[in-house]
């Protein structure tokens, strides 16, 4: 394993080095939180694909393939569909808003009265998303170094917190590009063909496994529908995803770069399911489906290649973890803490705000590591995150973008009713039940429509300013240091 260890150590050292290099570029709030809003198509596509394809998509996607066969691709497939929908229909408008958080968008649309409540819901979502990725370190580091779960979480989490705190979005963007390349080589170009060959090819796989393993809908229609509700719609409104859209240098970059990333996700979904199906042939009696990825890597890959593929697994986890962490810290600082304290930012104070946002990344990172150590179930934590996001925020966000009659009171009612309904139904029916997201979303929609129609329409001046911002005719004020050439 010496060669594999060397590959991993070099990879981790490279992540920290890029964090240090990114710190030299993050001189303003815009540079620190959204990479100066100047990523070109190549970097934008790579980093967007990296953040949405995390540990759940890699380790969990292979595990679903092990359990259900090719239909196990549906979870990651719906993530790709959500990213495609966001890119084609909404990303251009989102990029033109020139804001930092989803709550700021809600304030612009509804007149400045939705920020704190929506910020709390979004903070809970991003926190749990970061926790799920951090828990996944235990699986990879257990295979690599045979260390206990807590130490694995602390080791992996500390590296992510370090480079994210140093350079913010610039560090995360640079590391995500490396992680995107490593994932592509490790999972698509190496693990996928090797797994299929080791399993005897597709003919042998068909002969060894039940027919249901090759049924595209074998996982079940209700499960697929739930995936669409949670992941496809979740991609449309998550702070972690929007914050990447904010990094695009133009609305065209956001649209086409995101479309490329979404298409990549569809291919990645199928690859994970095929790898899991091959693992079922090779190891028919694993204790847990989520062990499939680590087991096939450990037992079937040659020295050196094994290290690279395990680095790909780490890359998948780290990219989502760092993206969720900076989103969590951005929401906590800008949407909750600053609003509760009533802070008014002085003109020209962008540089000073970097220190505050850096401190919040460190604080949230410590909270994420501590929570990950306390929890054990990745699926439950991820389900809580997406249930809160979709049940509480989907309706007011999409309503604000698509329905002119929506009001601030309707948005607040939708967030409160949907969020409380999701929490209550998870307590009553269980975290993994379908009812929380079904009925929570329905309750949120009803509250939004009824309360909006029962209250005065949004002020005409607010709507006029909103339309100007959507059209890109009212650019946000940026500091002089941000006026530099776009990154490709």
TrEMBL record:
<feature type="transmembrane region" description="Helical">
    <location>
        <begin position="116"/>
        <end position="140"/>
    </location>
</feature>
<comment type="similarity">
    <text>Belongs to the sodium:solute symporter (SSF) (TC 2.A.21) family.</text>
</comment>
<feature type="transmembrane region" description="Helical">
    <location>
        <begin position="437"/>
        <end position="455"/>
    </location>
</feature>
<feature type="transmembrane region" description="Helical">
    <location>
        <begin position="44"/>
        <end position="66"/>
    </location>
</feature>
<dbReference type="InterPro" id="IPR001734">
    <property type="entry name" value="Na/solute_symporter"/>
</dbReference>
<feature type="transmembrane region" description="Helical">
    <location>
        <begin position="152"/>
        <end position="173"/>
    </location>
</feature>
<keyword id="KW-0812">Transmembrane</keyword>
<feature type="transmembrane region" description="Helical">
    <location>
        <begin position="384"/>
        <end position="403"/>
    </location>
</feature>
<keyword id="KW-0813">Transport</keyword>
<dbReference type="Pfam" id="PF00474">
    <property type="entry name" value="SSF"/>
</dbReference>
<protein>
    <submittedName>
        <fullName>Sodium:solute symporter</fullName>
    </submittedName>
</protein>
<feature type="transmembrane region" description="Helical">
    <location>
        <begin position="259"/>
        <end position="283"/>
    </location>
</feature>
<feature type="transmembrane region" description="Helical">
    <location>
        <begin position="359"/>
        <end position="378"/>
    </location>
</feature>
<feature type="transmembrane region" description="Helical">
    <location>
        <begin position="303"/>
        <end position="332"/>
    </location>
</feature>
<feature type="transmembrane region" description="Helical">
    <location>
        <begin position="6"/>
        <end position="23"/>
    </location>
</feature>
<feature type="transmembrane region" description="Helical">
    <location>
        <begin position="410"/>
        <end position="431"/>
    </location>
</feature>
<dbReference type="InterPro" id="IPR038377">
    <property type="entry name" value="Na/Glc_symporter_sf"/>
</dbReference>
<keyword id="KW-1133">Transmembrane helix</keyword>
<feature type="transmembrane region" description="Helical">
    <location>
        <begin position="180"/>
        <end position="197"/>
    </location>
</feature>
<dbReference type="InterPro" id="IPR050277">
    <property type="entry name" value="Sodium:Solute_Symporter"/>
</dbReference>
<feature type="transmembrane region" description="Helical">
    <location>
        <begin position="217"/>
        <end position="238"/>
    </location>
</feature>
<keyword id="KW-0472">Membrane</keyword>
<feature type="transmembrane region" description="Helical">
    <location>
        <begin position="72"/>
        <end position="95"/>
    </location>
</feature>
């Amino acid at each position: 394993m010496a060669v594999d260890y060397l590959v991993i150590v070099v990879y981790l050292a490279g992540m920290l080095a890029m964090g240090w290099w990114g710190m030299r570029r993050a001189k303003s709030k815009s540079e620190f939180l959204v990479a100066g809003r100047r990523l070109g198509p190549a970097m934008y596509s790579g980093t967007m694909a990296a953040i949405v394809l995390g540990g759940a998509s890699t380790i969990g996607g292979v595990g679903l393939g092990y359990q259900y066969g090719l239909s196990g691709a549906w979870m990651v497939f719906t993530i790709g569909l959500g990213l495609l929908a966001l890119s084609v229909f909404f990303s251009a408008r989102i990029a033109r808003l020139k804001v930092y958080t989803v709550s700021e968008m809600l304030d612009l649309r509804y007149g400045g009265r939705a920020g704190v409540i929506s910020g709390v819901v979004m903070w809970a979502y991003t926190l749990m998303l970061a926790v799920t990725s951090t828990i996944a370190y235990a699986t990879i580091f257990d295979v690599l170094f045979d260390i206990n779960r807590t130490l694995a979480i602390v080791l992996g989490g500390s590296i992510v917190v370090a480079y994210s705190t140093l350079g913010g979005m610039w560090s995360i963007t640079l590391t995500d590009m490396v992680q995107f390349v490593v994932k592509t080589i490790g999972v698509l170009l190496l693990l996928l063909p090797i797994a299929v060959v080791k399993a005897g090819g597709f003919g042998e796989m068909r002969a060894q496994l039940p027919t249901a393993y090759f049924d595209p809908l074998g996982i079940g229609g209700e499960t697929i529908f739930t995936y669409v509700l949670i992941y496809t719609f979740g991609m449309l409104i998550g702070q972690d995803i929007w914050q990447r859209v904010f990094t695009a240098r133009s609305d065209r970059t956001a649209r086409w770069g995101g479309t490329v990333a979404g298409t990549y996700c569809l291919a990645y979904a199928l690859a994970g399911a095929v790898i899991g199906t091959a693992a079922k042939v090779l190891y028919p009696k694993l204790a847990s489906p989520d062990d499939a990825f680590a087991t096939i890597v450990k037992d079937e890959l040659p020295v050196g290649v094994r290290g690279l593929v395990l680095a790909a697994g780490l890359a998948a986890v780290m990219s989502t973890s760092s993206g969720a962490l900076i989103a969590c810290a951005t929401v906590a600082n800008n949407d909750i803490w600053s609003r509760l304290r009533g802070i008014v930012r002085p003109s020209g104070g962008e540089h000073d705000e970097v220190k505050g946002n850096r401190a919040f990344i460190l604080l949230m990172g410590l909270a994420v590591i501590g929570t990950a150590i306390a929890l054990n179930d990745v699926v439950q934590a991820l389900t809580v995150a997406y249930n809160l996001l979709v049940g509480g925020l989907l309706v007011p966000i999409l309503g604000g973008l698509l329905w002119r009659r929506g009001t601030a009171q309707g948005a607040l009612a939708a967030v409160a009713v949907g969020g409380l309904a999701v929490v209550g139904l998870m307590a009553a029916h269980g975290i993994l039940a379908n009812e929380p997201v079904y009925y929570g979303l329905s309750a949120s929609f009803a509250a939004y429509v009824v309360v909006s129609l029962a209250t005065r329409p949004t002020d005409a001046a607010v709507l006029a300013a909103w339309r100007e911002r959507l059209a890109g005719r009212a650019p946000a004020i940026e500091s002089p240091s941000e006026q530099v050439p776009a990154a490709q």
